[in-house]
UniProtKB/TrEMBL annotation:
Residues 215-334 form the DNA polymerase III delta subunit-like C-terminal domain. GO terms for biological process: DNA-templated DNA replication. One of its GO terms (molecular function) is DNA-directed DNA polymerase activity. It holds the Pfam family DNA_pol3_delta. This is DNA polymerase III subunit delta. Its EC number is 2.7.7.7. PANTHER family: DNA POLYMERASE III SUBUNIT DELTA (PTHR34388). SUPFAM superfamilies: P-loop containing nucleoside triphosphate hydrolases, post-AAA+ oligomerization domain-like. NCBIfam families: holA. It catalyses: DNA(n) + a 2'-deoxyribonucleoside 5'-triphosphate = DNA(n+1) + diphosphate. One of its GO terms (cellular component) is DNA polymerase III complex. Keywords: DNA replication, DNA-directed DNA polymerase, Nucleotidyltransferase, Transferase. It comes from Listeria monocytogenes. Belongs to the DNA polymerase HolA subunit family.
Amino acid sequence: MLPEWKQIRSKKIMPVYLIIGTEDYIINETKQLLIDNILEGEEVEFNYANLDLEEMPIEVVIQEAESMPFFGDKRLVMANNPLFLTTEKSKNKVEHDTAKLEAYLNEPVDYSVLCFVARVEKLDERKKLTKLLKKTATVIEAKRPNENELKKWIEAKLSKNNMQMSQEAITRLVELTSGQLTTAMNELQKLMLYCFDSKEITIQDVESLVVRSLEQNIFLLLDKMIAMDISGALRIYYDLLKQKEEPIKILALISSQFRLLNQLKLLEQQGYSQQQAATKLKVHPFRVKLASKQAKNFTELQLNQALKRLAEIDLEMKTGFGDKEQKLEWFLFELQDNRQKRV
């Protein structure tokens, strides 16, 4: 749990907040926490404003914040998308009177809470207004957690709900949700409901209940190929076809995974750490960690051959040459054959 969340729950409410980052779970939970701990019942209808700074100027936000609360002690104003504080270009040409925001930040009213929600990695630190906002606001970082941090999020949620879960099961949940906090917490909520009576979530529960994304199934398919389990790989492929997944979409994801393996192998040869590689490739560190293990099972030549063959299949599919489903099936057999030659 974030320390700022503890403060909010203990009713230590600050006049100005800044939520910055791209992790939806943290953003949404923080917004809901503020609503639950500032407003009561019907007060939400009268004293809550959720505004988009891409649609209206900052003056409207300040006006809302300076309006007296109605049938309550405080107002809560959410100001979403303050792109004028970033280097990003606004889609809509909304003019903002930033002097009014500056004046408000220097002397915020005591009967309103103003919360800025910036779904970006960072603000433009060169701007005077950005510096003032970060100085006067309580900043809550909605950044993507690493693997260990994600496990702590899961453990905290389990503890809060008096549920038990082994480290093995937690690790598997992290793997099956590709290290994504929002996805992991949604799946954990489902697991807790299913195991409510027993109060214990087993690895079998995780395996049977967690929904695998198409990307996760592609990763598992390659894992089967690495383990020389062609029948297991084909089962996953056939299951995807039964789920009405398009062969060309499956092909695109297989190609994307092989490109990642190839890029990782090249970067590792240049001395890049996994974290450095993740930053350079703009890929989630957990995905890099898992892909790095897969890359060790292929030679550079095998990866290049696979990418060349996948490009050929892509062209054949797009030009209507041959059976799409069969082409990918044969690719799996070819890959198996190349892996056996290496062994």
